Amino acid sequence: MSENSYSTLLSFKLQDEFFAIDAMRVNHILEVPEITKVPNTPAFMVGVLNLHGNIIPVVDLRLMMGFENTALTNDSAVVVINPEDQHDSSLGVIVDMVKEVVETEGLEIKPTVADKEESMLRNFHGTFSIEDQFVHIIDIEELVVAAEV
Amino acid sequence: MIDKFKAKFVEESLDNVNDLEEALFALENDMQSKDLIERIFRAMHSLKGGGAMFGFNHLSDFTHHLENIFDKVRNNKLDVTPDLISLTFSAVDEIKSLLDKGDLTEKEDLDSYHAFMGRIQSFSETGAAASVAESPATTAPVADDGEKTYLISFVPKEELLQNGTNPLFLLDDLHALGEGFSIVYTHKVPSFEPLEPENNYCLWQILLTTTESLNEIKDVFIFVEDECDLTVEEVCSGGFEVNQGIKKLISNARSANSLIKVSDLKILLKKDEPAAKETEIKDTEDKEQKKKKAFKEHKISSIRVSSMKIDELVNLVSELVTVQAQLSVYADKKGENDILGLAENVQKLSRQLRDNAFEISLIPMQSELMRFQRLVRDLSKELGKEIDFVIEGGDIELDKNIIEHLTDPLLHILRNSVDHGIEMPDERVAAGKSPKGNIYFKAYHAGANVLIEVTDDGKGINVEDIRKKAIAKGIIDDTADLSDKEILNLIFTSGFSTRETVSDVSGRGVGMDVVRKKISEIRGEVSIDSEAGQGTTITLRLPLTLSIIDGLLVKVVDNQYVIPISSIEKIFALNQGQLKNSFNKVVVIDNEQIPYVDMRDVFKEEKAEMEVPQMILVKHDDKRLGLLVDEVLGEYQTVVKPLGRYLKTHEVVSGASILGDGTISLVIDTNRVLQMNSSGKFKGKKKEEGTKREEF
Hints:
The complex is a heterodimer of chains A (about 150) and B (about 700). By secondary structure, chain A is mostly beta strands. Chain A has one domain: CATH 2.40.50.180. Helix content of chain A is about 10%, strand content about 40%. Chain A has helices at about 60-65, 140-145, and strands at about 10-15, 15-20, 25-30, 45-50, 55-60, 75-80, 90-95, 95-105, 125-130, 135-140. In chain A, the strands form 2 sheets. Chain A has a 5-stranded mixed beta sheet. In chain A, strands 3-6-7-5-4 form a 5-stranded mixed beta sheet. With about 700 residues, chain B is α+β, with helices and mostly antiparallel strands. Chain B is built from 24 helices and 21 strands. In chain B, strands 6-8-9-11-10 form a 5-stranded mixed beta sheet, covered by helices on one side. Chain B has a 5-stranded mixed beta sheet with strand order 19-12-13-21-20. A 5-stranded mixed beta sheet of chain B has the order 14-17-18-16-15. In chain B, strand 8 and strand 9 (about 450-455) form a beta hairpin. Chain B is extended. The interface between A and B is medium-sized, with 27 and 30 residues.
């Protein structure tokens, strides 16, 4: 668990579990648009999409987290994050469903117990529970490093 | 080159002067402000320093004295008074004119300069404006500078044009000598029937005021002496004005089918003498005004803009080009004339805008060359070598992003040349060379590329040594059959050049793999050529601009890709038979064996039988390779966008471009495909794929 530099989180669903990222780092939430495949890349790198003339790489967070079902539904979305205020670091992340924006104030955030072997992400900023659901806070730094091909 | 620096200095100094003026205005309202005085002092100080450095000695001297005054003000030895401020304001004007003229040579300028200087010195001593009302030189009569007016009658023969003479150029030459007024007579032009189109029927008279001698004027006509009748007669001293009298003279002469007589003109201009004087004064006033105007124009002829803004402009323009392409697609689909017309106009405009914006982002390499010179100079001194460093083509312009990426690799290359290429003087003498080494830096255009060559006449590279080293390092097989050039290019392979190989091979190639990487990041290529004992040439091939390419749109399975046209040599349509019969992935076309790769293999796509496979022959250096694709869709000019940091290191794809309909197609880096193919990466790919997955 690390210091909370953020006050709002965006939570979303991957398969049956909930995760959250710093909402201030989220630039767009899109319905899954047409994504151009980039050959010779790992499976989690879905391709690139055109967002207002910018090329944004898209990763499937479900695959990165070790989930297997990658089917898209009506709820599937691409969350475009901009981790470093730099133009070239924008990244699209496919999730199964975007849930809500949560204020961290008053939340009790506990250390995450992560034991999913297959996941590329191991460090979480903590876990809180809301409406009887555990929500794990993703470390964007780690996500960015893991997404670099 | 020093002129460029001067121009830059003047540009920057004008900024300083502006700042100075601004601060003065502010000081006028707040005479006690220490900050403002400091600011003024600083501005003067940089003017002084820069002036001396760039040979503006008068400027430097002048500002030095001015600075003295403000030094006193700064140290509370002198109060800021309205007198001081107005003196400084007029001093600012003097500074501007010094910047404009450089060091003064004209006597009148010098007089006024020294007079002003006197005022400043006495002010700095007494703290009061000296009562020298105005510099005497400004009211002194304008000296007779030996100007004379001539009447030149130029009556060419009819055959004049037949040896290629253009009489108008002669007139231009004349006008270059001074103030001139040409009168053309066309009365000899015949009616249409007998007119010979290749003959000349015109004649001219020119009134010219110049300081040049009679012979100088006649020299203009030296090559047509035999084809014309020429008279040059002096009319009067001083200038002339084309007034009513002269106009009347001209029209009289024209209607009488004759020329102006010099005697008539003399009478006319004599009568006009006082008027002429007046015009002369007016002329000088005009000149003053012109000078001032030129000065003002100089001030705004270039502006400095932050490079961020230019980047943004280029980005926006790129986006506009993309949107415009979408509009064109839409218009085509609708087929309405109105919108088609509009789309066409938008296309034209955005194309112009694009060219313009890209031109703005081009800067001459000059700015970086200084660093190279310093490096060569300092390093050669340090190593005790003598080196002549010659730069050619410093005015070649490149995208500023390219130049930014270029500096480090070039410094690296030059350092290698100085350090490892050029031998010590005694070694050179022993090798029968002059003790002084030479490094040539040459930049020039070649098609859509800019080439930069760095050549030294040093000891060169021994190919055999490189080969042995490469085998020892396991980079190539000892059975590998490589040309000398290919072997030389091995030094760009990563893992080849490490410090120790450098010292025992031929002393070159520290981090040459880094150089190649950096250059390929800006879509450039680097190659090397060397002969042992003779020297080494490293050539960089760079694109003019990073963001726009002409591309060929192709289809591989269901995806569209762009291949830069610059790397394509030919496109062939093959039939399945040619491929089936081909052994070891070589296809024979026009009796030439051409190796090929199936892009579906490169991209690890499912293979189905291609109906008519298209082979795109790409080349790089002397290597050629055919790329098999399913379909060729057409030629497009596209904006290449980076893939972002996540895909930056992709092995085959170097960027992406957005098509008219908004979809993305990836840009294939053919050089990398070539490289990968020659290093055998596509063979036995199944296995490699397996290991690859694990890496991620």
